[in-house]
Amino acid sequence: MNTTASPSHILQVPIRTDRGAARRPLPGVVASCRTEGTTLSIAVQGEIDHFTVAPLSALLTSAAAFGHTRLVVDASRVTFCDSGFLNALLAWRRGGRRLVLAAASAAVKRLLAATRSGKLLTQEARR
């Protein structure tokens, strides 16, 4: 029996259809999620603030629990973000895990510049 699970399971909710329950991704800030070995790659979108960051935080917590140690984030479609988004990413780093910000929108770049956090989130990308 395979007991390996992917953290993407929390992005799924049962949807009733005529033929029973189907699984469909939740709408929200996490646009996509995939895993390869211990790397979790996600794309985030829309407005990510203290009110909307919960699904992302839950995904990252679940991924860490499943042993993922590297996170690659595509934030090119983020239209607004605040410290809620930044805190979720920094919480990932606090566990000694690696993070690569593969792409950043203008909103993300503004947040990183305003908080001087860019170096914390992009160190691995420069190696």
The ordered string of helix (H) and strand (E) elements is EEEEHEHEHH
- Estimate what percentage of residues fall within beta strands: 35-45%
Largest sheet: 4 strands, mixed
The gyration radius over C-alpha positions equals 15 Å
Strand order in the largest sheet: 3-4-5-6
Q: Mean of the pLDDT scores?
A: 80
Q: What share of the residues lie within helices?
A: 25-40%
Q: From the helix content, strand content and strand pairing, which structural class follows?
A: alpha/beta
Spans where pLDDT lies below 50 across 5 or more residues: 1-26
Helix segment tally: 4
Total beta-strand segments: 6
Distance between the termini: 39 Å
General shape: globular
Task: Give me the secondary-structure topology.
Layout: E1 12-17, E2 20-25, E3 30-36, E4 39-48, H1 54-65, E5 70-81, H2 83-94, E6 98-104, H3 106-115, H4 118-126
Parallel strand pairs: 4-5, 5-6
Antiparallel strand pairs: 1-2, 3-4
Helix pairs in contact: 1-2
Describe this structure as you would to a colleague.
Helix content is 34%, strand content 38%. The protein is of the alpha/beta class and 127 residues long. The strands form 2 sheets. It has a 4-stranded mixed sheet. It has a two-stranded antiparallel ribbon with strand order 1-2. A hairpin with a 2-residue loop joins strand 1 (12-17) and strand 2.
Please name the defining characteristics of this protein:
about 35% helix; single chain; 4-stranded mixed beta sheet; two-stranded antiparallel sheet; about 130 residues; alpha/beta; about 40% strand; 4 helices
